[in-house]
Amino acid sequence: MSEPCQLPVIIAGAGIVGLALAQALKKSGAPFCIYERDQNLHARFSGWGLSVNSEALRHCLPNSLFDRLDSIQVDPRQRPTSDIGTGFLNLETAQPWLTIPSSLRRRVDRGRLRELLATDIDVKWTKRVVSFKLTDSGVSVCFSDGTKVEGSVLVAADGSGSRVRRLLVGDRVGRLNPVPAHYLAVTVRLTEDTLNQLPHPVIFQGSHPATGYYMFFSTLSTPEVNGSRRTSNPYYEAQLDVSWLSEGPEDVVPRTNAARLARIKHMAAKDTGFHITLRKVIDDIPDDTQVSIVRLADWPTTSWDGFGGRVTLLGDAAHPMTMYRGEAANQGFTDAKNLAQQLALWHGGSKTRQEALTAYETEMAQRGREAVLLSRQACLDAHNLHKLTPNSPLIGKRNSPTRPC
């Protein structure tokens, strides 16, 4: 068997999954370089909260970082628990309609998780991949600033709109598929009294039986975390999201921020039947609140020519999906764990590069495609309470995405 190449693995994208892979490669002693198109870690909004199944991350991180996961929970007083949320609610009554099977997880702040994963990682900023070409030893990657770098493998962790994915499979095959629903999100501040009146203080979701409107709520920070506890107005931060199916011209997303906020408030208005506790939280959203549009789209993972193990995909670049099952990050962490393990086998001389990458991609493609399609169905099911059953992927237990390749 030929000697493994000593050139670095090139990671394109320093989001949470690309950084998890960087940590895993660093942990195993494999050479790597990581590049990111943004100017710095805080150049863009990092997202809200996410539920982390930490087993894959445990494999990626050194103990010193893994042990800090509890400190970045939205409420650090909470321990990792299977008691997150209330099940799926009927928004008319604010009572559980169906129970969602529990699993051990942490609810963490996505931005702080990214900061944690970037610890001691030398990210090369302002580096956007525009092309690559094969070399005798691996691959040469060209960036938008005209610079080039040579590595053994190019790993694309450049997100759902991945440039590398489209270079691999072509623009037509690699483009995202719109999902027929619209999604709006806001960040709100709540008093402790208001939070305690809600169905759950950390996270809940549900839909309305008559309108099909969907709502998701998750606490983002406590007064201890955001520094307001010692002030005269301590507050909790939370994300509040709503979505609805796109079934006609009347369902388009309003063009202005004010109109989008009005749409959210109309969805919860008294004549639509939202429970008064939920309606009050929405009615109290200040008029100057920024409303974010989340474009719902996916890409069921398909095969590609990786050029003998020289180019591959990771995380949202490989299996972008809707958020209704909360699986995207955990699937990506599993990718990072499995790919790092396969690369270690190659660097250790027990597999060729192509054998290692084929093993990774075969498992990941099957798992990723299944997760994408389940998440798409979960999105559709979330807007029809009467057709929702325990067998829906919205409700059913999430498969542990930690199986080895």
Automatic annotation (TrEMBL):
GO terms for molecular function: FAD binding; monooxygenase activity. Residues 7-372 form the FAD-binding domain. Residues 1-22 form the signal peptide. It comes from Chaetomium fimeti. It comes from the Eukaryota. Its cofactor is FAD. This is FAD-binding domain-containing protein. The lineage of its organism: Eukaryota, Fungi, Dikarya, Ascomycota, Pezizomycotina. InterPro entries: FAD-bd (IPR002938), FAD/NAD-bd_sf (IPR036188). Pfam families: FAD_binding_3. Keywords: FAD, Flavoprotein, Monooxygenase, Oxidoreductase, Signal.
